[in-house]
Design brief:
Pfam families: DegT_DnrJ_EryC1. By secondary structure, the chain is of the alpha/beta class. It has 2 domains: 230 residues, Type I PLP-dependent aspartate aminotransferase-like (Major domain) (Aspartate Aminotransferase, domain 2, 3-Layer(aba) Sandwich), CATH 3.40.640.10; 120 residues, Aspartate Aminotransferase, domain 1. The chain is 38% helix and 15% strand. It contains 11 helices and 14 strands. The chain has a 7-stranded mixed beta sheet, sandwiched between helices. The chain has a 3-stranded antiparallel beta sheet with strand order 8-7-11, with no helix packed on it. The chain has a two-stranded parallel sheet with strand order 1-13. It is globular and about 70 Å long. The two termini are 23 Å apart. Bound molecules: pyridoxal-5'-phosphate. The site of pyridoxal-5'-phosphate has 14 residues, from helix 3 and helix 4.
Length: 360
């Protein structure tokens, strides 16, 4: 059976080595030495000034919205994982959708200004499938209208934009280190910012607001992650370049094998370094997509409909926001299996199943 993804695991001895340290220190959580080491290593890896390791990518989004004191309307993309929208609602704000660019599948910067109202406070955009948003355009719109910008960068570990990590964009970027992601810590996430004031706020907010053992700086929540999770991150980081290279190689095999297939693929920003986090293909119609899924199930391959449905269809958002491009792409898009352990032979087998189904 081949699923859309399979988590990477390091050699067990390498994890055991970290466990021995945890056992001897008996420091399991609360900003322990491995959490600190992971944060420092990730900061160096991305070249960013402030990075906070938290429990998951969803709490990272919620903390980002809270740290920026957002209220009212938040402009966002309908083509993302549900957490991008649900975090806005969870924090008491109203998501206002702006349709995606049919070429990149990211929020269309040309449509943002028309959606701005006096209630708008921020833009929350996703670098979907690891393809960077039009951050320059989004940044100028935000500056002109005094809006804050959050990037949901859950897919963008290793993505470059203008010669450096895409995590430099916006007021805050958030990452997810869930097991299904390119780099994972079992569960986990992070917030990245350039702003020292925001960094100070986030540091307090993720630890109940504690400022010293008996005093508090504002309201907080528990967003801390454990030494065990950080240990997995430290193990996996050693392999991240291999993981990126392997995905690149498998992506090229897909490209070669599926050259003749009539499918759409996201246009990759020419100024970007892509991380090959996903292999999305957009079929001619939903009927073709369903036929392809059937054909793949026939050979025990289980791709996923990332992302379906388009998020304006959620029951808890303002009704009547029609997102033509996003709902059209969402109805036809499929992510093919892509993970470190997947073999070239398996990719070829998947492609052959697709090509057969296309003909008959
Ligand atoms: C995975 C993901 C999240 C949520 O991250 P978790 O770590 O699972 O909470 C948020 N946004 C996007 C785009 C994701 O893919």
């Amino acid at each position: 059976m081949i699923n859309v993804t399979k988590p990477f695991l390091p050699p067990q001895e390498e994890y055991d080595h970290y466990l021995q340290g945890i056992w001897s220190r008996k420091w399991l959580t609360n900003n322990g030495p491995l959490v600190n080491e992971l944060e420092l290593t990730l900061k160096n890896y991305f070249g960013v000034p402030h990075l906070f390791y938290v429990t998951n990518g969803t709490i990272a989004l919620q903390l980002a919205i809270k740290a920026l004191d957002l209220q009212g309307e938040v402009i966002t993309t309908p083509f993302s994982f549900v957490a991008t929208t649900s975090s806005i609602v969870w924090e008491g704000c109203t998501p206002v959708f702006v349709d995606i660019d049919p070429a990149t599948y990211n929020i269309d910067p040309a449509l943002i200004e028309a959606a701005i109202t006096p209630q708008t406070t921020a833009i929350l955009a996703t670098h979907v499938f690891g393809n960077p948003c039009a951050a320059k355009e989004i940044g100028s719109i935000a500056a002109k209208h005094k809006l804050r910008v959050i990037y949901d960068a859950a897919h963008a570990f290793g993505t470059q934009y203008q010669g450096r990590s895409v995590l430099h964009q916006g007021d805050i970027s958030t990452l997810s280190f869930h097991s299904t992601k390119l780099f994972h810590t079992i569960e986990g996430g992070a917030l990245i910012t350039h702003d020292a004031g925001l960094a100070n706020k986030i540091a307090h907010m993720r630890n109940f607001g504690f400022h010293g053992p008996e005093t508090f700086q504002g309201v907080g929540i528990n967003g801390k992650n454990s030494e065990f999770h950080a240990a997995m991150g430290l193990c996996n980081l050693k392999y991240v370049q291999q993981i990126l290279d392997r995905r690149h190689e498998l992506t090229e095999v897909y490209h070669r094998m599926l050259k003749s297939l009539q499918v759409g693929k996201p246009f990759l920003h020419p100024n970007a370094g892509f991380n090959y986090a996903y292999y999305p293909v957009v079929f001619e119609s939903e009927a073709v997509l369903l036929r392809m899924i059937d054909a793949m199930h026939g050979v025990y391959v289980y791709p996923r409909r990332y992302f379906y449905p388009s998020l304006e269809k959620l029951s808890y958002v303002r009704p009547g926001q029609e997102m033509q491009v996003s709902s059209d792409i969402a109805s036809r898009v499929l992510c093919l299996p892509l993970y470190h352990e997947l073999s070239v032979e398996e990719v070829k087998m998947i492609c052959r199943a697709i090509l057969r189904a296309e003909r008959y």
